[in-house]
């Protein structure tokens, strides 16, 4: 659980908070107007008040660029210029009472929604209506007017959720690409875009929905356990979703695995009204008791500090408490540091120095994610003498079974020699298959037929002769694309010993491509790029190199 600290307490009910450009926090309360704060030191930058900005104000919105405030009273929308504290526009909505207001991400458009379910588009510098973007049905199933209940923006796209479960999306610039869908008839309290085609929404019954706009389909529904979900917010690491219910705590979901990660990740002294992300490591929560609470998220710098101090056990504990850190560079450094100690301990055990191995690994005695692996390491070398005997007697199936049970044995000299022998045998069998001598190939591989790890690949190559021959031919010709294409048809092909060699060849080709780009050898670079296209595991590296090539 994360700890919170009080940022600010207001004297009246907090109506709205928003993070603006330049690290400004805008706060609107019922009785004391608007306050603009510098987030870093909580100093007041400006106080804003207006006669029509009061408890009767029906809606309020802040432009992200810190320039404007839009607020409504009866059938008028007022646009106030924040730096000068002057109302620069008054828009008459022609008897349409505005219930919600928002600015788009570019602070260019103002979107207003009415009591009758209309979604209206204005410009901050114009008083006339630009467009009626959509009109929700006049009545829902409970015979009440259908109105907008939530907004979301992504680039030039906007989504509106309604109190009857309907969600409407549109391209604000072209006013096209309208998509309308409905997961149920419950009020949509919150929406966010993952990208231009995927949306997450949350309803008044505690459900979260993942929808694809490409095919207008529901991808996944999650029942959170909250009586209702008031807000969903992507974390700075967008693989994780913060969920705010009608409670004093916030839950975290892994949206790649669609599962609850932490039930009570952050707890507060009162019910959470609204949550905003201030920066990569900071959240701000508005509570029912009129206070703003600051939350510091786990920082990768903290993880790095523990690694530098060699406090690896504390570093793993930090990651255990905050799984989101697993995506950081620092976590990779932590795993490398652990692997280095593990290998040192393994080497000590090979040399029969158990005391040294124990001393090296004692730091992980209470580390949940590593203690089982360390336990297996010592158990492996309690059986090492027997493993060596099996190797010497060439009882490979039994030796492989032991190595499977105790993975540490797979890092020994004996296991490496066994794999070398297997690789040579497999290559000889490949040659026999290439000549159509399947009985000879089967005879060669028969020695490994009872080895559980080898049995599937042996069965594959003996029964899928055509595909296997094509695979071998592609490897021989270094046809990387064909190798990857065939490998995709069955993952077992990636277990073929010669496949490891082709992956090394691909990495060398990437290095050669980098050299061609550095030397501005366009002709050679084009050939290599063409050869390396459509290989999944190097897409990222190839994209970077292609961008470099485009800049030549």
SSE topology sketch:
Blueprint: E1 4-9, E2 14-20, E3 24-29, E4 34-38, E5 43-48, E6 59-62, E7 68-73, E8 76-81, E9 86-92, E10 98-103, E11 109-114, E12 118-123, E13 131-135, E14 148-154, E15 157-162, E16 166-171, E17 176-182, E18 188-193, E19 198-203, E20 207-212, E21 217-223, E22 229-234, E23 240-245, E24 249-254, E25 259-267, E26 272-279, E27 282-287, E28 291-296, H1 300-308, H2 312-321, H3 329-350, H4 354-361, H5 371-382, H6 384-392, H7 396-405, H8 413-434, H9 438-445, H10 455-463, H11 465-476, H12 480-489, H13 497-518, H14 522-532, H15 539-550
Antiparallel strand pairs: 1-28, 2-3, 3-4, 4-5, 6-7, 7-8, 8-9, 10-11, 11-12, 12-13, 14-15, 15-16, 16-17, 18-19, 19-20, 20-21, 22-23, 23-24, 24-25, 26-27, 27-28
Helix pairs in contact: 1-2, 1-3, 2-3, 3-4, 3-5, 6-7, 8-9, 11-12, 13-14, 13-15
Question: What would you say about this model in short?
Answer:
This protein has 552 residues and is an alpha+beta fold. The mean pLDDT is 89.
- Biggest sheet overview: 4 strands, antiparallel
* Uncertain spans: none
Query: Can you count the helices?
Result: 15
> How large is the share of residues in beta strands?
25-35%
Strand arrangement across the biggest beta sheet:
1-28-27-26
For the termini, the CA-CA separation is 50 Å
Protein structure class: alpha+beta
Q: Mean of the pLDDT scores?
A: 89
- Extended strand count: 28
What would you call the shape? elongated
Radius of gyration: 31 Å
Fraction of residues in H or I helices: 25-40%
């Amino acid at each position: 659980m994360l700890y919170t600290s009080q940022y600010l307490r207001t004297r009246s009910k907090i109506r709205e908070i928003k993070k603006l450009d330049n690290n400004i926090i805008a706060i609107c309360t019922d009785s004391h107007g608007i306050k603009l704060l510098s987030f870093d030191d909580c100093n007041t930058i400006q106080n804003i008040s207006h006669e029509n900005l009061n408890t009767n104000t029906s809606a309020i919105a802040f432009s992200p660029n810190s320039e404007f405030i839009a607020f409504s009273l009866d059938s008028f929308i007022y646009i106030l210029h924040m730096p000068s504290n002057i109302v620069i526009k008054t828009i008459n909505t022609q008897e349409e009472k505005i219930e919600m207001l928002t600015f788009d991400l570019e602070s260019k458009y103002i979107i207003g929604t009415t009591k009758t379910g209309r979604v209206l588009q204005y410009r901050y510098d114009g008083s006339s209506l630009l467009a009626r973007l959509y009109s929700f049905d006049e009545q829902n199933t409970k015979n009440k007017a259908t109105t907008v209940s939530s907004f979301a923006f992504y680039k030039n796209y906007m989504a509106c959720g309604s109190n009857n479960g309907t969600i409407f999306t549109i391209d604000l610039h072209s006013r096209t690409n309208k998509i309308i869908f409905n997961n149920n008839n419950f009020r949509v309290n919150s929406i966010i875009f993952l990208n231009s085609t995927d949306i997450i929404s949350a309803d008044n019954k505690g459900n979260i929905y993942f929808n694809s706009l490409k095919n207008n389909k529901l991808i996944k529904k999650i029942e959170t356990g909250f009586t209702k979900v008031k807000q969903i917010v992507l974390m700075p690491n967008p693989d994780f979703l913060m969920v705010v219910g009608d409670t004093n705590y916030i839950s975290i979901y892994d949206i790649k695995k669609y599962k609850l990660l932490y039930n009570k990740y952050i707890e507060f002294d009162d019910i959470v009204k609204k949550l905003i992300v201030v920066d990569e490591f900071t959240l701000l929560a508005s509570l029912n008791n009129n206070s703003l609470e600051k939350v510091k998220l786990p920082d990768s710098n903290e993880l790095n500090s523990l690694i530098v101090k060699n406090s690896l056990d504390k570093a793993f504990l930090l990651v255990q408490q905050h799984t989101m850190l697993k995506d950081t560079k620092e976590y990779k450094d932590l795993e490398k540091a652990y692997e280095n100690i593990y290998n040192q301990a393994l080497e000590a055990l090979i040399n029969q120095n158990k005391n040294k191995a124990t001393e090296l690994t004692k730091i992980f005695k209470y580390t949940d994610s590593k203690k089982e692996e360390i336990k297996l390491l010592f158990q492996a070398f309690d059986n090492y003498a027997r493993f060596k005997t099996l190797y010497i007697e060439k009882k490979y199936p039994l030796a492989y079974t032991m190595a499977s049970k105790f993975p540490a044995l797979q890092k020994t000299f004996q296991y490496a020699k066994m794999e070398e022998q297997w690789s040579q045998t497999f290559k000889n069998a490949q040659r026999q298959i290439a000549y159509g001598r399947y009985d000879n190939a089967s005879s060669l591989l028969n020695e490994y037929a009872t080895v559980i790890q080898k049995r599937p690949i042996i069965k594959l190559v003996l029964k899928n002769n055509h595909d296997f021959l094509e695979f071998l031919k592609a490897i021989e010709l270094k046809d990387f694309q064909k190798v990857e294409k065939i490998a995709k048809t069955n993952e077992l092909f990636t277990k073929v010993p010669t496949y490891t060699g082709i992956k090394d060849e691909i990495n060398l080709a990437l290095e050669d491509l980098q050299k061609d780009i550095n030397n501005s050898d366009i002709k050679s670079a084009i050939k290599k790029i063409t050869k390396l296209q459509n290989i999944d595991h190097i897409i990222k590296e190839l994209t970077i190199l292609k961008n470099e090539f485009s800049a030549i």
